Amino acid sequence: MPSVQIRSSPPPVATVTDLKQRVIACLNRLSDRDTLALAAAELDSIALNLSPETFPLFINCLQSTDSSAKSPVRKHCVSLLSVLSRSHGDSLAPHLSKMVSTVLRRLRDPDTSVRAACAAASVDMTTSITGTPFSILLGPMIETLIHDCDPNAQIGAAVCVAAAIDAADELDVEQLQKALPKIGKLLKSEGFKAKPELLGAIGSVIGAVDGRNSEKAVLDWLLPNVSEFLSSSDWRARKAAAEAMGRIAMAEEELAPLYKKACVGILESRRFDKVKLVRETMNHTLRLWKQLEGDSTGVSESSSSSKSASYGMSATSGKRSNGLKGKDRNSNTLLSSKLNGVEPLDRSNTPKDVEQNAVESKDKRNHSTLGAKRNLFPAKVSKVNENGLNKSQVVQSSDEESPKTDSGSSSSSSQAMNNAEELSLIRNQITQIEKQQSSLLDLFQKFMESSQNGMQSLERRVRGLETSFSVISTDLLVSRTITRNGNHKRNACLQN
Q1: CATH assignment, 15-330
Q2: What is the mean pLDDT of residues 203-224?
Q3: Where is the composition biased (Basic and acidic residues) (predicted)?
C-alpha cells in the first residue's frame, strides 16, 4: 500500500478573515481614548492565544499600520511584538526577520515612547527567540545605524543596538569586532546627530567583546575620539563618553593599563562637571582607571610623549596630570630631597656613607637657615656689626662657607611650599563652588516645584471663577427672560 502523508490542515478561511477583521477593528479602537484600554487588552489576549499558522497574518496587520495613525496605535503595535516574543518564544524564529523589519519601520517615529517600545521589543526578541543567529536581529539594526540619515532613526537604532547587545547571552564577537570601526567612524561624521546614543552603543559593543581578540590599533583611535566628548557642550554626550571609557577600563584588562596615564589625566581635569549626574559618572570612571594594574608614573618619557601626541592632548593638560600624580609619597620624598640639596639615598651605600650624607645634609640645612635668618632680620645683623668685629666676622665667615646652591634650594623649597599651599586653596575653593552649585540647583528645583504648585492653584481658582461667572450669567439671562415675559403679560392686560 502507498504511504499516506498526513499534512497539517490550514486554518479555515472564515477563521482567518474573522481574525483579521477583529485585529483591524481593535487597532482602530486604539485611536479613541475611551476604548483604548479595552482594545489594548483584547489585542494582548489575541497575541497570547495565536497559533503558529496565524503568526504571519497577525504580524502583517501590525506591519501595515500607517505612520499617519495616532501615537497609541503605533506604540501598541510595537509592544505587541514584545508580547508575541515573550509568549511564543522560539516558535517565532521563522518570522524574526519580518518582526525586525516592523521594528525598523518605527525607528523614524518622532515620538520617544514609540522608540522606547522598539528598544523593549528588541530586548524581548533577543532574550526569547534564541533559535536563530543573533546576526539576524543585530545586522539590520547596525546597517540602519550606519546608513540612515534621519535623526530619529539614528537615535532609535543606537538605543536598540545597545539594548539588544546588553540583553543577549550569546554574541557573535567577530560581527561586533567588524562593526566597531564602522560605528566608531560615525563619531567624526557631521551628518550623525545622535552622538550620546552612539557612545552608549559603542560602550555596549566594547563590553560585549570583553577584551577577546582585542587590538591596540583599535584603542589607539577609539579612546581619543571618545575622550573628545568629555568636554562636549551636551551633558548627555559627556556622561555617555565617561561611561564608554569606564567600559573600556573594565573590559580591556590587558591593553587599558597602557593608556592609564593619559586617561587619568583627562578624567582628572573633567571630574568637576557642573551637572551632578555627569560628575558622579566621571568620578566613578576615574576610580575604575586608577584601580588598573600598572603604575602610570613608571612609563618612559618617549612612550608618554607618543601617547599624548596620539591623544591630541595639550601641554597644559599634561602638566596638570603630572602635578596631580606627584602626590605619591615616593615622589614627594624625592622632590623634597632634591629641593633641600640632598641626593636620594641608595640602598647599596654602606652605613658609614649614610651617616656621612646625613651629617652633610644637616650642615647644609643649618647654613640655609642661617642665610634665611640673615635675610629675614637684617637689623639684628647690623647691630652685631656695630657692637663688635668678632661677631660680624663670625657671621661673614659662616655666610661665606654656605654655598650658593643652598640659597637656590631654599628658594625652590619655599616655592614648592607656596605651590602646595596654592593648590590646597584652589581645591578648597573648587569644593566650595561645587557645594554652592548643588545648593543653587536644589533651590532652583524647590522654586520650580513651588511655582508649579502656584500655577496649578491659580488654574483651579480661574476655573472656579469661570464656573461661577457662567452660573451668574445664566441666572441673569433667566431673570431677564422672566422679567420680559412679565412685562409683556402686563402690557397685554393693560391693553385689554
Answers
A1: 1.25.10.10
A2: 79
A3: 344-363
